[in-house]
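job 3f2a | input accepted
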Amino acid sequence: MIKQLKKIFPSLLIYSDENDNLDKNYKWFITKDNQVIGIPKDDLNQNELSLLNTFLSPYNIKFPILTNKEKKWKQIINNSAHEEMKGFYRFVFFSIQQHQIDPISFKEAIQELFPNQIPILWENDHEGIIVEEREKNEEPIVYKQIIDLLMSDLYVKIKFFVGPFRNNLDHVKQHHLSIIKDAQTAFNYSKKEVITYSEAIPFLLIDQVTDSFKKDMSKLILQDYVNDQETLQMIKTFVECNLNISETAKELYMHRNSLQYRLDKFQEKTGLDIRKFHDAMTVYLALIAND
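job 3f2a | predicted structure (291 res):
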């Protein structure tokens, strides 16, 4: 196809070097084989442009050129390539504050924090998927450790949704779509910058039930505390600190005796002791439903 286009448009360029700049005087397209080609804008009239758009996808020069790994993962996700996994991988969805940084600058910042080139698949100019690959004995990236560094360096707000590791490509397209959907759901329920898939399970479960059930559940479990935002935040922090009194008190700038007293009062009024896992999870689900 490219040879035929070259005959019609002799000035056609094929992007082959990652250090090349995408000339703004060219109209850039990406083929089904993920090759990026450019045709001078002056060589195209409106009819020709419309025709090219029917079998080529316009390529936005705001985005980095796809690396070979990124091309491979796009093909795998679209079920157009059959690969056998030798190690593990996970999809990590990210969301950047809009209009704060361009995709090229974000990718450069991310790559500095990873030992190897890491594939980034963009959904739009502020959201996408990082494909983290690792061998059996390699340590995974701890996103909670790099998030503060990234935000302070880039002066933008970023959120990560860290999917589970997988060792096969079964139903990978559905998994890819599921991670994006689950991330957006989790972000609606939590203000945390980094949420793992396991941490998101309560949000995903509550999101499946009706609004009337959420309302009834929160009233039945939280009782007189249903509108007490200070106490509810204390309980939420306590659960997120793994039911650790000292850590929660430190997080809330509260004396641990004061925290113990308030937990006792909550138990006295509701009959639920959130220092016990089962009661803590019940109250936590009611909290999410109440939000």
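job 3f2a | Residues 47 and 287 are 57 Å apart (CA to CA).
job 3f2a | closed
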